[in-house]
Write a structure and sequence with these properties.
Blueprint lengths: L1 H18 L2 E5 L2 E5 L8 H14 L5 E5 L12 E6 L4 E6 L2 E6 L10 H10 L5 E4 L6 H9 L4 E6 L2 H13 L6 E5 L2 H8 L4 E6 L9 H7 E14 L6 H13 L4 E15 L2 E12 L1
Parallel strand pairs: 2-3, 7-8, 7-10, 8-9, 10-11
Antiparallel strand pairs: 1-2, 3-4, 5-6, 11-13, 12-13
Bound molecules: S-adenosylmethionine.
């Protein structure tokens, strides 16, 4: 009886949490993210946007996200709500600068801790492949904070690739971060087989499908950081669910492996989590 009461209270709190519009800040742009299962009250959104512009002098432009992240390029639809009608800005993270265009590329400050966590795991002279690099956040932060030999940085979105190239120059990591435009699987098959000490797979939707390419790209041994979305039921640990998914997939390959780290990166919906698993793999 008591358990039921607690569950109802938690569900109510979760509904409240997901029902409020959230505001995310990217450089001098504010993004209002409404809950997508509720109707949008546009007058409320406009007054919220005007309040942001008036109270936060560093914010010059406010956009409303009108869709969740979608498509293979992981972008959203937006409408302009207040301030300058400009969707490009400079986003700062861990002392690095990133040119972004919120309408054409994936960008979120919610991966900030993860960018640094992975950067600090990198050992001197490692060759890294970032299979889903976006505008280069993981790659450039790794190049700045650690001493990798090379960071091969792949993205399929031409807008992300163009901005990644500009960000490599902006942060002076030319010759260390190498940009590629294309499908990560194709690039690995064509030029990066057996070349990496560490592979990053920050795209949960296709990470398991592309795991064979990550394994193909690893030298005799190396780390894979794989990001998964997991739906965990009541009383289930999202990390355990993610481990089971990954182990089932890893068992298809002729390798030995050890999951050496794991964490919940962020919640992405009610009972839906993004989880990262750090796997050490060894080819036979
Ligand atoms: C979640 S975003 C990456 C976020 C980025 N790593 C960061 O930290 O900001 C995923 C990226 O993968 C790219 N992508 C999608 N499918 C791809 C594929 N098959 N090969 C390479 N890149 C792909 C998308 O264009 C998108 O920029």
């Amino acid at each position: 009886m008591l358990t039921n009461t607690i569950d109802t209270a938690i569900m109510k709190e979760l509904r409240m949490k997901w029902a409020k519009p959230k505001i995310e800040y990217i450089g001098d742009i504010a993004i209002i993210k409404p809950p997508f299962f509720n109707k949008i009250n546009i007058d409320h959104i406009k007054s919220l946007a005007n309040e942001v512009i008036e109270k936060q002098k560093s914010i010059k432009s406010v956009w409303l996200a009108t869709s969740p992240v979608k498509g293979k390029e992981k972008t959203r639809d937006f409408i302009h709500i207040a301030g300058e009608k400009r969707s490009h800005t400079i986003y700062k993270e861990h002392g690095c600068l990133f040119k972004v265009d919120i309408r054409n590329v994936f960008i979120t400050p919610r991966l900030s801790f993860e960018h640094l966590r992975v950067a600090y795991m990198v050992r001197e002279n490692e060759t890294i492949i970032n299979m889903f690099a976006g505008v280069g956040l993981f790659s450039i932060i790794i190049a700045k904070k650690s001493k990798p030999f090379l960071v091969h940085s792949i993205d399929i979105n031409p807008h992300a690739y163009k901005l990644m190239k500009e960000n490599i120059a902006l942060n002076k990591v030319e010759g260390i971060v190498i940009p590629y435009l294309g499908d990560a699987g194709d690039v690995i098959k064509e030029i990066l087989q057996n070349s990496a000490d560490r592979v990053l797979m920050p795209l949960p939707e296709i990470a398991l499908e592309y795991l064979s390419y990550a394994i193909l790209s690893i030298r005799k041994k190396g780390f894979i950081h794989i990001y998964l979305h997991v739906n965990s039921k009541k009383y289930q640990d999202p990390i355990e669910v993610a481990r089971e998914l990954l182990v089932n997939k890893l068992n298809e390959f002729k390798i030995s492996y050890e999951i050496r780290g794991s964490r919940i990166v962020r919640s992405v919906g009610p009972r839906l989590y993004q989880v990262v698993l750090d796997v050490f793999t060894k080819k036979h």
